[in-house]
Specification:
about 300 residues, alpha/beta, Rossmann fold, Elongation Factor Tu (Ef-tu), domain 3, 6-stranded antiparallel barrel, elongated
Length: about 300
């Protein structure tokens, strides 16, 4: 089957370009480190900076059993990348047919549609069939086809390379400080508010039940001090991630209690920034015991949020 390059063909760069390619899930500090080099080279060589990303992680296409917990939605990823100064972001639909494209063919396509003059990559980057297009191969292709290649070293924190995988692992363990340090911002979930069981309301703590995509990465089950954004305004909040074991619930949910303000939020889009883990989720002997603990959680969240400013 012939690969369709409609996404690339839809872009008309105003001049020759410098390109980087990757999933960029999370757009973390390591990604920003790479993009700074991209934008810097664009300025130095009078090129147009652009990013080619993928709508789905290639591993999920090549091995459908692979489970990827995304740190950002595609829309969030594109918006975050554009804020870093790139002129365009192209989300390619990665397919098995595209995976069979040789490195030479892929580079030819980038030159044909994007007028690529320079390629910025990380040290472990590879493109093309069987990942044949590593740095050494790309340097050879660059000399042959008239584009430069720059390899940017990874960003290292406390002896560990900043990566999406490291962030996913820290998130799953509830290590929010590490997640925040690597992302360069608090971890965020966003989506519409949907109807829940309304148990929180009965306990005196009405919550907004956030709908999240099934492939969205979630923090470890527990209670968190959070900041919730509604129509652009920030509100202090406490958020529970988990299955509410006191009530025997099976489905994993994300429920935010907005402090000191009762609001009707059904169907509204909200964003929740996770600031600090307060406690693990656990089963209580009664709803009254749970309500008493939530009161303590709220007071602890107030302390955390005050320290956050």
């Amino acid at each position: 089957m012939v690969v369709q390059w409609d996404e690339l063909a839809s872009i008309s760069p105003e001049g020759e370009t410098v390109i980087t390619i990757g999933v960029f899930d999370g757009v973390h500090l390591g990604h920003r480190h790479l993009i700074r080099h991209l934008v810097g080279q664009a300025e130095a060589m009078d090129l147009v900076p652009g990013v080619v990303t993928f709508q789905r992680h290639p591993q999920q296409v090549l091995n459908p059993k692979t489970q990827i917990s995304y740190l950002t939605t595609l829309e969030e990823r594109i918006a975050l990348l554009k804020r870093l100064g790139v002129s365009f972001v192209i989300p390619l639909n990665f397919t098995r047919e595209l995976a069979q494209t040789t490195a030479h063919e892929f580079v030819m396509v980038l030159q044909r549609y994007l007028h690529m003059k320079s390629l910025i990559i990380g040290p472990d980057f590879a493109l093309g069939k069987n990942r044949e297009g590593n740095a050494a191969v790309l340097f050879d292709l660059g000399r042959e086809m008239g584009f430069s290649v720059q390899v940017v070293p990874p960003l290292v924190q406390a002896g560990e390379i900043v990566s999406s995988t490291a962030i996913r692992q820290a998130l799953a363990k509830g290590h929010l400080a590490k997640v925040r340090n690597m992302l360069g911002r608090p971890y965020r979930l966003s989506g519409p508010v949907v109807h829940g069981a309304e148990r929180g309301k009965g306990l005196g703590f009405p919550t907004a039940n956030l709908h999240v995509n099934s492939n969205q990465g979630l923090p470890e089950d527990g209670v968190y001090a959070t900041r919730t954004y509604i129509e652009g305004e920030a509100y202090p909040s406490v958020t529970n991630v988990g299955t509410c074991p006191t009530f025997g619930q099976q489905e994993r949910t994300v429920e935010a209690y907005i402090l000191d303000k009762e609001m009707k939020l059904y169907n509204q889009e909200i964003k929740i920034d996770f600031l600090e883990h307060i406690r693990e989720e656990r089963c209580f002997v009664s709803p009254e015991a749970l309500a008493a603990q939530i009161n303590k959680d709220v007071e602890r969240a107030r302390e955390i949020l005050r320290s956050e400013g």
